[in-house]
Write a structure and sequence with these properties.
The chain contains 7 helices and 10 strands. By secondary structure, the protein is α/β, with parallel strands linked by helices. The strands form 2 sheets. A 7-stranded parallel beta sheet has the order 1-10-9-6-2-3-5, with helices on both faces. It has a 3-stranded antiparallel beta sheet with strand order 4-8-7, covered by helices on one side. Pathway: Amino-sugar metabolism; N-acetylneuraminate degradation; D-fructose 6-phosphate from N-acetylneuraminate: step 5/5.
Length: 242
């Protein structure tokens, strides 16, 4: 585990973007696992800025997003399809056929989960997986539980997750109650994992995830088992690490 701490948001975003860009430059056909939420916004903005300088291309890259809400139109402003188009896809040369996001409107969600896992397998191993960290320790939408599911699956979102995501909707009642999420097993298969966490409100869960016991009650703690984990923190998020 390689943990780096930054004293400004700009420096953290630049460092994360440089890791993603470096992966593409060294592996032009890279398979990237992408995340959504508040944390990656500045990272994607920096990636787009560097892309516009003409230093690299996404033409041969394949991407797989971690998750998508269930029963939300893909053109809804808070769908993760809309998020990715707004913050990244519409600004780069990544072919649409090479962008993969789970279909939260699939008639058979279980079949969609199987299809998504098969697509990931066919693409080869994910070279770099970008992750954020939920207040309750979730990664993707893998919530704390007695046991975690290996592959892509439908999950009932925890109350803490609904409350955290309510800031993106008119109220907590408008937040979808379920999502399709890549499983922890698939996440841990990635060759390299980049975990990015910001804010003092995440300091407790950062300590628990990185220095606490490995337990399914804190899904992010399983990242301690990964042989190539890079963690980027701002000073506030790192505040309680020993």
């Amino acid at each position: 585990m390689n943990v780096l701490t930054f004293d400004s948001d700009d420096k953290l975003n630049e460092a994360a973007a440089n890791i993603i860009i470096g992966q593409i430059q060294t592996t032009p056909r890279a398979v990237l696992g992408l995340a959504t939420g508040g944390t990656p916004v500045g990272i994607y903005k920096q990636v787009v800025r560097e892309f516009n300088r003409g230093m690299f291309s996404f033409r041969n890259v394949t991407t797989f997003n971690l998750d998508e809400y269930v029963n939300i139109p893909i053109d809804h402003p808070e769908s993760y399809h809309s998020y990715m188009n707004s913050h990244l896809f519409s600004h780069i040369d990544l072919p649409a056929a090479q962008c993969h996001i789970p279909d939260g409107n699939a008639a058979d969600p279980a079949d969609e989960c199987r299809r998504y896992d098969e697509a990931i397998e066919l693409s080869g191993q994910i070279d770099l997986q970008l992750l954020g960290l939920g207040h309750n320790g979730h990664i993707g939408f893998n919530e704390p539980a007695h046991a975690l599911i290996k592959g892509t699956h439908v999950v009932d979102l925890a109350e803490e997750t609904l409350e955290a995501n309510a800031r993106f909707f008119d109220s907590v009642d408008d937040v979808p109650k379920q999502a399709l999420t890549m499983g922890v097993g698939t996440i841990l298969k990635a060759k390299k994992i980049l975990l990015v966490v910001k804010g003092a409100d995440k300091a407790d869960i950062v300590k628990r995830a990185l220095q606490g016991p490995i337990t399914t009650d804190c899904p992010a703690s399983l990242l301690q088992t990964h042989p190539n984990l890079i963690v980027l923190l701002d000073a506030a998020a790192a505040g309680k690490l020993s």
